[in-house]
Structure formats: structure tokens, C-alpha cells
Amino acid sequence: MTRRVAVIGGAASPVGRLQTPADAPLQALEHEILAPLVLRAMAAAGLAKEEIDALFLAMCRPYTLQKYFATFLANYLRLPLTGGIMEVLGNGMTGGLSFDTAVHAVASRQAEVALALGINMESQAASADHAMSTMRATGDVDFHSIFGFTPISWYAMDAVRYMHEHGATRAELASVAVKDRRHATLNPIAQYRKPLTLEEVLAARPIVEPLGLYEVPPRGDGAVCLVVCTEQMAKATARPYALVRGRGFFHDGAHQIDEVPNDMTAFKAAEAAATTAYRAAGISASDLDLAELYAPCTIVQVLAAEAMGLTPRGRGAAHAAAGETALGGRIPICTSGGCLSRGHPAYITGLLTIYELWEQLTRRAGARQVRNARLGAGSCELGNYNAALIHILEASA
Amino acid sequence: MSLSCIDVPGPRPWPPRVSAFTRPFWDALAEGRLTTTRGRTSGRLTFPPKPFCPYDWGNEVEWVDLSGRGRLYSQTVIHAAPAAFAREAPIHNGIVDLDEGLRVAARILGDASLDAAMECVVLRYADGPLFAFRAA
After folding, report:
1. Chain B residues contacting A via beta carbons under 8 Å
2. What is the C-alpha to C-alpha distance for residues A158 and A146, in angstroms, rounded to an integer?
């Protein structure tokens, strides 16, 4: 028998450059960044340390020297646990899975209070070297990586195909980056907060054609902690919380591309996961007040929004350009600034997604607050949205 | 059937690993043939080749020649290339749907429009072959 679960607290570092060069005399240490966030998140939750009984850590990047970081951190925090402790890895879904695991632990009565947290440090690794690792994650080492496909190169091919089939324009796609930057200017943890024009996005140097610098994710570090507990406990705190109303997951069984030709830009996994999540929550896409999507590139935000029913198929880029997915629009998407401007410390991006939803649904979002936000959707994914994990959260008040 | 071969100086930037099972694929490619496996009970092709059929998990498979002909599904030019590919960057890669109903990712040579007819060619590097496609 399961029970209802709430997000009652959260804290996040600014996204950007936290990692220090290997030869710096003073080093930034992961636990010294993450532990204070645990304290802040628990203070926001209004719960006592002794009530925590599980910890689910988004696995650290290989650049983090301390291995078995989860148990190291439990020691650092003097945190004995009766419910469980785990380091979670699920490619781009890693952060989302650590949250999902925490929710499951509470829902299934293994824990009353669980932390979902992580720190992603990678900014000191040169992009060309980092890509030597990530190309082996988003491709068959012996049949894809041999050609040098990088993670975002698959998204670029989505863009080319999408424009070809639906007549979307470069400017329409690029407008997503401008809109996300505008959101990020209102987010104190965002990596990039200087306004960006459409002309700048279109004139940027190419990274993976047709996408230029501002349409692909920046490299960055970040850390975040969320506190998850039973709805009953959340209510007892008398503080606002975000209730987990629905969850959906789907993996299409493919690694980047299906060997059987299909519509690659349909993002079937996002569609299937959203359908499951909406059904669990008893809602439809049109009931959502905002959506925080895992979208490392402009095109990915367009395709995920279409697959989740937030914009019509083939018209997502046009709808974005028309302002429908901006703050104040019909369905604000990525109010945090998203991967493009809030930043994309990939292994914790899924946690930052839930953090933004929690801020919005508990009215903490300041100048980027979606008025009367009641229902929000968060997505994360892996590959070329070969798998999607979607949560629906609802404001407690 | 023999595919056109193009000599490329130097070694492959990131050579594939060759196993006892995949060796026939790479040997055939070096001879100008694009091949894969077909499950004997399902009759279905798969790519990359596998020592079993992923559809019905049958253990009996046979090697078959592919036409190397297909259509360009999508493409990109990767400017921010992994370190090993610095020499070849920017890299023109794409996805080709073969006439046999298989989707393959590979290097693309020259200009080609989406949905254009494509043909497979063999890039003969000093240390072994890679497959690529160009407008037919």
C-alpha cells in the first residue's frame, strides 16, 4: 500500500563554475558545497535532522575524487539511515531518478523523510576531452562513436529533420533560447542572466549544425538538495509544499536511434510517459500551469513540449516564437531558464527541474513566479529522449 | 556487388573494437561489402550485426549482404568534436534509412539533401575500414 508524497524543502547552489583547477592552491570540495545545502533544505522543510531516514544521491561525475560519495556524505553529516542510501545513475535521467527513488521510498513506507540530492562537477574538463567520455554514453561505441557523434549531435539531427518535415524556421527554433534567457534573468541561481537577442542566437558560431552556441547547453557545475516526505508530515509542518500527483516512465528500447526507421522527432517516450503521468494525476496536458522540461537544446524543448501535448505537433517552434511558452504565456516552459540558461550540470539537471517546480508551487519564485501556479510537470530523459521520466506536482495551497 | 572504396591517409580517429563475432563484418567491409545478420527463424535483419536475433532471441543467424542504398534521414556537421576527431573536424555525419528497412548512422561525404538517394562507400584508412554514405 502506497501513500502520498510531498516535496517539503529544497536548496540549490548557483549553477556555473564551482570546480577549481587541479593546480589551484585552494580547492572547492564537493561535500563543503553540498552539506550546507542539506542544512538549508532541511531548514526550509522545518523538519528535524533525526527524521531523515534515506538519502538518494545523483551519482557524481568521474571528476569527483571522493568515491562512494553518498556514504561519505552521510558520515560528514552524521546521518544514520534506516530506509536506504544509494548512488543513482541513469544517464541524463540521473537527477530525476534520484528524486524518483526518494519518492518511491517514502510512498512504499521504507522512509518517512528522504533526501534527493547531488553535485555535478565538470567545468574544469575541456569540452573536447569531456566529449570523449560522453560520446561513449550516447552512442554504440563500436558503430556510432567511431564517427564522433556527440550527445547534442543527435539533437541537431532532430532539428534538421523537424525543420524539413514541418517547415519550422531557424528563427522559430532560436526564439526558445531567447525566451529561456529572459526567464533566467529572473533566476538567482541561473548560469547566464545577461539578456540575449534573436540576432545573437542566430549569429552564434555553429556547434552542431544547425545549432549554434546559444542553442546547446553550456557546461557547468551545480549542487542541489530536495527534502521529500509523506504528505501527512508535510501538512504537519504547516508550510507550503508540492505534492507528487503523478509519475510516468517509458523507454523505447533504442540507444539513440531505432534500427527500424521511425519518426525520430516524435519523442514517443515523452508522449507515453506523459500519458501515464497525466492519467495517474487525473489531469490532461491543458490543466498544467507550467512545465519544466529537460531540454539541452532549443529543438529538444520544442519536441518534448509537443510530445507531452503542451503544443500541437509540428507547431511547437512557432508557438514558442509566438510567446505561448514564455512567462505570462499560455503554458510557461522552463521558467528557471532551462538547460540553456539556468544551466545544465547534467547529472543534477533532473533535480533542478523539481527544485524549480517546488519554488513555483510554493510561491518562492520571486519575479519569475507563475501566477496561481497549481499544477506543474517536470521531465527528464536519456539518449535522444529514448527514455522519459515525468512527474506531476501540485501546490498544497 | 562491391562498394566504392576511398583511401584515407592515417588511422581511424576512434577505431571500433573487433570481436570474433563482428570480425566478418569488418573483413567484408574491407572487401567492399556492407553486411549484417538475419535471424533464421524470424527472417528479420538487424543492425549492427548480432550473434542472435533481437526479435525472437533465436540463436541461428546468417550473414547477408546489404545493398548499401538508402535515403538520407537527417544530417549534421559537428564543429565541437571529441578530442580524437580534431583532425577530421568539422565532421559531417548523418542517419541513412537503408532500402532493406534498417536505420544506420554514419559519416556523410559531400552535399546531400534530406530524403536523397544515398549509397554506401568504404573509407579505407591505414588501419582498417569505416563505412560512409554519399549521394547516389
Report:
1. 12-17, 22, 46-48, 73-86, 88-91, 93-95, 97, 101-103, 105-107, 114-115, 130
2. 20
Q: How many domains does chain B have?
A: 1
Instruction: Tell me if the pTM is above 0.90.
Output: yes
DSSP-derived secondary structure for A6-58: EEEEEEEPPSB--PPPTT-SSPPPHHHHHHHHHHHHHHHHT--GGGEEEEEEE
Q: Which CATH number fits domain A5-125+219-237: 3.40.50.40, 1.25.40.10, 3.40.47.10, 2.40.50.180?
A: 3.40.47.10
Residue in chain A lying closest to B86 (CA): A128
pLDDT tens digits, B102-118: 999 999 999 999 999 99
Q: Which of B74, B100, B111 to mutate to test the interface with A (most CBs of A within 10 A)?
A: B74
Q: Are strands A375-382 and A290-292 parallel, antiparallel or unpaired?
A: parallel
Mean pLDDT of A162-170: 98
- Predicted confidence (pLDDT) per residue in B15-58, tens digit: 999 999 999 999 999 999 999 999 999 999 999 999 999 999 99
Q: What is the span of the domain harbouring residue B125?
A: 4-135
Task: Give the closest-approach CA distance of B1 to chain A in angstroms.
Answer: 22
- Chain B hits for A147, CB-CB cut-off 8 Å, are 91, 93, 105-107, 130
DSSP A231: H
| Cβ count within 10 A of residue A217 | 23
Burial classification of residue A126, based on how many CB atoms lie within 10 Å of its CB (0-12 exposed, 13-18 middle, 19 or more buried):
exposed
Asked if B76 lies within 8 A of A209 by C-beta distance, the reply is yes
What are the tens digits of pLDDT across the range A237-251?
A: 999 999 999 999 999
CB contact under 8 A, B105 and A256: yes
> What's the half-sphere exposure (Cβ side, CA atoms, 13 Å) at A74?
23
